[in-house]
From TrEMBL:
GO terms for cellular component: membrane. This is Protein NUCLEAR FUSION DEFECTIVE 4-like. It holds the Pfam family NFD4_C. Its main location: membrane. InterPro entries: MFS_trans_sf, NFD4_C, Nodulin-like. The chain crosses the membrane at residues 75-96, 108-134, 146-168, 174-193, 214-232, 238-263, 335-356, 368-390, 402-421, 427-448, 460-485, 505-528. It is a multi-pass membrane protein. It comes from Prunus yedoensis var. nudiflora.
């Protein structure tokens, strides 16, 4: 009886969130391309442009995330997770067969297909987790997004450090991990992650906030642990095994929250009725969840601010903050501001992550795994801090959440300038700044999209925004970095290209810094246009805390 009692108690909801954390902790495999890209380049005798286009093919897989977004409104979470697990197993499994030389290198176009499959697999995992958890914890979207996206940021460091500790950074064994581990974790989450009723009373909301603080502390401990392993240099066999065991313990620690909830049954956590029938029934818009909407006077509703337009047949366009269909959303000016500001930040960030190996080699670093880990770990701190801080300042003074994206764009621009300078240690500083800024953008954009356009079609909305990852990868990595690198590079005897020196990427870094400044202007504009929405959320939160 114990397992059934546990799953049907409120602890089951928290156990589902723990498995969601585990899924996110292994779903950042798209950011690990630099760990095995050099092996692909040498094995297939590729130019830098060809290698970058392989990374673009990986990111193009995210464009097909629209399918997972559509599926999230029709299929249960379990089916979406299974699809992602199987697709990832095939996509990364074939890449492992090639790099381990168990099969001959496939034709270039076939490798692009399997790279695309590997990239697309994570969209199914992310959609299943984010849509479900944003609905289950609708009153704490900032912390939820920060924690989940934080573990995505850590996943690159988790995979990299595990491979370093167990397999001495062997690229073929690294790819085997990318194929097998996510499949196992997703199949585990299938058993526990499902949609449930969100907290409906002040006591439940207060308890949620307390538990999320506990999750934050654990996540920070994981990040510090990984950082300590990275900065302490090489390790012997015994220390490496001890590191792996310690990491497993830290990743298991979130289980303490559902166990505590089940054993002590805190007040205000009686189970909701008919939890098994709750999938896809949570359709209320954001502002209906956190408080009654505040009616705007007619002169504001009919203004030209894009808040309440009417279409040609006289039907009222939904207010920003209410549920939008996809057609209604793309007709708003605010959506396109969010879309292009997001493109400026994540596109340039993807360029660095996809080209980290070549950037490091050009600057004289033969082992770039430390930079991959630094970007990942500091990206985590950007995600976790921005999720908590943005939620706090909304509740304190109604600060528009897009302002945090604006700050991230500034941070990334400074990082690119540091990289372009090629001074001693500047690549370390640049990796940290770019990683933090990229993490903030991915975390903040998730709740911003739901706050402006609602949760009803959130799965599809999220994946439309994620189109910026393949688009940005193509523009900044496939075209900008690839073409400018090859223009500076010399041919090798094997048919590839190589470039050594700060000039290889200097112009790329300068252009990306300018792009981030454009993103800054767009984020400030969006914050100004949506200040009334966040004032409404502030009043709703203030009303909730005083009742």
């Amino acid at each position: 009886m114990f397992p059934w009692q546990f799953l049907t108690s409120p602890a089951g909801k928290w156990l589902g969130f723990v498995t969601a954390i585990w899924v996110q902790a292994i779903s950042g495999n798209n950011y690990t391309f630099s760990n095995y890209s050099h092996a692909l380049k040498s094995l297939m005798a590729l130019t830098q442009l060809q290698l970058n286009n392989l990374s673009v093919a990986k990111d193009v897989g995210k464009a097909f995330g629209l399918l997972s977004g559509l599926a999230s409104d029709r299929w249960p979470t379990s089916i979406i997770l299974i699809f992602g697990a199987v697709e990832g197993l095939i996509g990364y499994g074939v890449q492992w067969l090639v790099v381990s030389q168990r099969i001959s290198p496939l034709p270039y176009w076939q490798m692009c297909i399997f790279m695309c499959m590997g990239g697309n697999s994570t969209t199914w995992m992310n959609t299943a987790v984010l849509v479900t958890c944003m609905r289950n914890f609708a009153n704490n979207r900032g912390p939820v997004s920060g924690i989940l996206k934080g573990y995505v940021g850590l996943s690159t460091a988790i995979f990299t450090d595990l491979c370093t500790a167990l397999f001495s950074s062997n690229p073929s064994k690294f790819l085997l991990m990318l194929a097998v581990v996510p499949a196992i974790v997703c199949l585990t989450a299938v058993l526990f992650l499902k949609e449930t009723e969100p907290a409906s009373t002040p006591s439940e909301q207060k308890q949620e906030a307390e538990f999320f603080r506990a999750f934050d502390v654990i996540a920070i401990a994981v990040a510090v642990y990984l950082l300590a392993f990275d900065i302490t240099g090489t390790h012997g066999h015994v220390l490496s095994l001890a590191f792996v065991i310690g990491l497993a313990v830290l990743l298991a620690m979130p289980l303490g929250v559902p166990l505590y909830t089940f054993l002590y049954k805190p007040s205000g956590t009686e189970p909701s009725c008919h939890n098994d029938d709750i999938e896809h029934q949570i359709k209320e818009p954001l502002l209906a969840k956190i408080g009654a909407p505040i009616e705007k006077p007619p002169e504001i509703q009919n203004s030209n601010e894009g808040i309440n337009l009417r279409n040609v047949v006289g039907k009222r366009q939904p207010l920003i903050g209410e549920d939008h269909t996809i057609i209604e959303m793309v007709q708003t000016f605010d959506f396109w501001i969010l879309f292009f500001s997001f493109l400026c930040g994540v596109g340039t960030g993807m360029c660095v992550m996809n080209n980290m190996a070549q950037m490091g080699l050009a600057l004289g670093y033969h082992d770039v795994s430390i930079f991959v880990s630094l970007t990942s770990i500091w990206g985590f701190f950007g995600r976790i801090v921005s999720g908590l801080a943005s939620e706090y300042y909304i509740g304190k003074c109604g600060t528009p959440r897009p302002l945090w994206n604006a700050a991230a764009e500034v941070q990334m621009a400074l990082g690119f300038i540091a990289m372009a300078s090629a001074l001693p240690g500047s690549f370390y500083i640049g990796s940290i700044l770019v990683g933090m800024g990229y993490g903030v953008l991915l975390t903040i954009t998730v709740p911003v999209a739901s706050e402006l356009f609602g949760l009803k079609y959130y799965g599809l909305l999220y994946n439309i925004l994620i189109l910026n990852l393949p688009l940005g990868s193509f523009l900044f990595s496939g075209l900008l970095a690839g073409l400018l690198y090859d223009a500076q590079a010399t041919s090798t005897s094997g048919g590839g290209t190589t470039c050594v020196g700060p000039h290889c990427y200097m112009l790329v870094f300068v252009i990306m810094a300018i792009a981030c400044m454009l993103g800054l202007a767009l984020d400030v504009l969006l914050a100004f246009r949506t200040k009334n929405v966040y004032a409404k959320i502030y009043e709703s939160k203030k009303h909730t805390t005083t009742t």
